[in-house]
Amino acid sequence: MATAAAAQDTDRGTDHGTTARQGVFDAAVAADERIEPRDWMPDAYRATLVRQIAQHAHSEIIGMQPEANWISRAPSLRRKAILMAKVQDEAGHGLYLYSAAETLGVSRDELLDKLHTGRQKYSSIFNYPTLTWADVGAIGWLVDGAAITNQVPLCRCSYGPYARAMVRICKEESFHQRQGYELLLALSRGTPEQHAMAQDAVDRWWWPSLMMFGPPDDASQHSAQSMAWKIKRHSNDELRQRFVDICVPQAESLGLTLPDPDLRWNEERGHYDFGPIDWTEFREVLKGNGPCNEQRLDQRRRAHEEGAWVREAAAAYAGKHSGTSETGATRA
Amino acid sequence: MTTTDWPLWEVFVRSRRGLSHTHAGSLHAPDAELALRNARDLYTRRGEGVSIWVVPSSAITASSPDEKDPFFEPAADKPYRHPTFYEIPEGVKHL
Amino acid sequence: MTATVTATAALALGDDALVLSHRLGQWAGHTPVLEEEVALANIALDLLGQARVLLSMAGDEDELAYLREERAFRNVQLVEQPNGDFAHTIARQLYFSAYQHLLYDRLAEGGGPFAPLAAKAVKEVAYHRDHAEQWTLRLGDGTDVSHERMQRACTALWRYTGELFQPVEGLDADWPALEAAWLERVGEVLRRATLTVPEGPRSGAWTAGAGRQGLHTEPFGRMLAEMQHLHRSHPGASW
């Protein structure tokens, strides 16, 4: 239940109480039980979840932009319907996730404000441009594929509302990846120009997709603690490897090549080896120097600012007509 | 900013006739009418429901986790409330 | 009714739905509040679904959508008007959904070639109309700013509403009756929203023709250029 006020621990004052509660919390996590909004939880656990869920929600919302860029140019009505439904799902997923974050005692407005002022991040992948129609396919296959690899374990995350949101999201997202793959397949088997368009998109999206799993384990800031709390279930490198292993045969079926000369099956490891990732590029994009950072954030801010009068109008109308003016007061 | 912050609503969806409404999630809306419509758009766009309730989150009174033990543990030691508590001779039917 | 007449009428209805769907799709990522991303996309998807059925009654949906020139489109000028601010989008939707609901309700009862589609679509459209009416009330009777914006939008689009009731051959409807019912419904909503029912003419002063005859407004050409560009760049390709 997303009652923000209730999410606050009522008496975290006493050391004795805190130690006992820490014990209950640790035991619940160890027993693979879910932590629910009104349960006591360590401040750092709450802060980690807020950061992660907010970043995830922001990614869904910003992630609408690169694909929405092609809605008005989709080359068939069938593709247009699919793309609109997919971008709409991303808005929906953002909403599920903001709801989950709100159970931790933060408001959506606060989180949006942090996004708009650059104090919270979204996935860097959306700072790359969608230059051709094939990019819509590459995003579905690779970007959503990487996201799903990341997200499926989150369905078992120790925090109940986040885990439940992820179950819903994963169920709905199963079509996202398939439509991308199907789109690329149509291009790959189409005219030479279409095939080249598909290959070009895969060339540009492959490496950024691998970066979506985050820095290598030995350089990842938050990983160890998140794994101990069962917010995270697998390490970055583990998930990245899983993704590569899945993609190689899929690329072969597509008739497209992955842009990595070092990519080959390693019999001994039972996995595909792959070449070194350019972490300098990753850090630069993260810092704000990607091709579209400014553009994405600007559009988001503009939509929010230009929509303020609409939100105000609806709040004013509710105040006039409900008798009890709920606006604002309910969130105290 | 906070003056236009729409209140939070809890959404309950009946997935099909014969089942009760279950909690689906929450959303923001300025009033009950839009809350209902937003819930329809957000939580039933794949045909997940036949009926929706929306409730202001602020109207929900919840039991506190601190009271979990006094609230729920006393119910755990009354096995005589369950049919399996009783021994019935073999062969007795419809009981 | 001949096949050609049915096809022509299907184009008129199909183009209305296609063009308005396209316009609504342009809101993706730009709406005033996240909940409206989902709401507007639902409406756009309903309309696109209707358009695909209707265009398929007239030929190949993609050939019709992507390979016709501007003059061959038969949609009313109202639906091609740019999104403008949220008030303009809501006013456009209010005017169009009220019309579409009345017409489809009639077509669903009529038993002609459009009855099956109309029977399904009328339920979708009832929701679109409700969405537009709810927002008209909130914008009209919200703040001073929203009231002014909504009034401006309703007035600006008023001149495109006369065309809605131009009889379309092949559609069995009592057009003057539809128009009277439309004026009553829309007038009632505007009054409840504390807005003034516009008094200006309901068609343009320049009467060389209108959308149903293939004559469109300036923004439409640009809209089509964007919509058709990719498809036309790869003749014969499948997607």
Automatic annotation (TrEMBL), chain B:
InterPro entries in UniProt: PaaB, PaaB_sf
NCBIfam families xrefs: PA_CoA_Oxy2
Protein known as: PaaB protein
Source lineage: Bacteria, Bacillati, Actinomycetota, Actinomycetes, Kitasatosporales
